[in-house]
Structure of DUF397 domain-containing protein:
Amino acid sequence: MPDITWEAPFCGEGNNCFRIGTDAEGNAYIALNGEEDRPLTDSIEALRTLIRDVKAGKADHLL
């Protein structure tokens, strides 16, 4: 596993916590808090796009 720098957990309602991390090679990671050994991986730009789209309401239909 690469050397990932994890941010503090982000917890929504009901304690659904996840963490976002990055590595020195430009990859981004999202994992459930406590399950950082099984992250989803993509580029940092893909993570930025995901966050922008969520903030813009483009994922509201999934909630």
Q: What stands out?
A: The first helix runs from residue 44 to 55. The helical segments are 44-55. The mean pLDDT is 88. The chain is about 20% helix and 30% strand.
